[in-house]
Amino acid sequence: MSEIKCPLCGFAEQTPDGADCCPRCGTRLAGGEGEKKLLEAPGTFTTEDKQFFGKMSTSASIYLTDRRLLAIPEKLEGFNLRTGLTAAAVNKMTGRYGAVSIPLEEIQAVRDGKLGLLQKALVVVAADGGVLKLTLPKQAQWKEAILAAAPNLH
């Protein structure tokens, strides 16, 4: 057993010797050229899941690298009255860490939007039709950086 520390998300954990990727964000730890972090900020995100849309958002650390857009949740917030699911139950059902990663090649559009009634959001649309809504500081800077980094948006 050895302790690893991810150069991207800073996650540290005891892992079996020979582990080659971070269990939290999936960053390769050994071999090859590592990802370059372009931007990092705290924020929240949600996906366009109609059952939870507008009901739950996730506090997260959000990263833009030279290869992908990554949102790593800190914890789920909120409570859905319609289904009676708490954030803790959703977290257990959706996996250990629940990180959302979109390769830059799969980003089809980036636009301004809203999360709920008033909060401004940055909406990222993936090739598979998935939507990731982000609320974070300096949204205009993030939008420009994603547009510049994603090869399909030039």
TrEMBL record:
<protein>
    <submittedName>
        <fullName>Transcription factor</fullName>
    </submittedName>
</protein>
